[in-house]
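Course assignment 3, question 2. Fill in each field.
Student: A.L.
Task: Predict the tertiary structure for the chain below.
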Amino acid sequence: MTDQDDVTEVLARAIDALAGRRIAVLTGAGMSTDSGIPDYRGKGAPVRTPMTVEQFLSSDAARRRYWVGSHLGWSTFAAAQPNAGHRALASLEERGLVTGVITQNVDGLHVRAGSRRVVELHGTMRRVFCTRCGQVFDRRDLAVRVETENPWITVPANVRLGPDGDVLPESTDGFVVPGCSVCEGMLKPDVVFFGEYIPLEKFREAEQLVHSSDAMVIAGSSLVVNSGIRLLERARRRRMPVVIVNRGATRADSRATVKIDGGTTEVLTALAAALPDR
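Answer field:
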């Protein structure tokens, strides 16, 4: 979005497509970049090889690497604040224009911004659960345990976060992996790893939100993950207008009613200011 005339024209078309309609919103990692959390595929994003669920569950070394990196990045990740784009969506929901937010992010920023109906499609980093007994733990409490059991570990002042709040550790030697304090089982963050399926009931909740709406906005997602494409197709089958807001191309630009090539913060703030109340 560089030419002001083009910006005005595209925004006007988006407003026309959305005005008077109940809007379901799908957000991806680009939604949180202005809060200091990097995305996976945006311009300048480092090449990463995310850990798969198979690696995490089958390898002691992989779990040790995960928990070291995740702990090193946790305090910075947890300190991230909702940006104006998150607040714009919360405001639109308060005004009755947005029916809810479906997010691929695990940072919890939509909830903290005040959005009430949030479907966390890929889970949340706020919780950890035991794969044996099912006990759920608050991640903040687990961080205290990690530091108690690994008093030598120091969190650097400046860390380069990954999109899920982790950091590539220099070493994992001697790290004590946290276990369940109830049954000593394996702990896993309450997030969907690469190679892991989204829980069926969670996807159905997202589908229901789309089905109860008249339009769809997709913000900050390149739609590489199939769950996003599936929800987009649910909207298209219902002949709902679809507005995509993303820096750079997505897998579904040709399927959008309006595509806005720009940052989610400025575009969603502009939409919130311009959309009339229903």
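Instructor remarks: The chain has a mean pLDDT of 91. DSSP finds nine helices and nine strands in the chain.
Grade: pending
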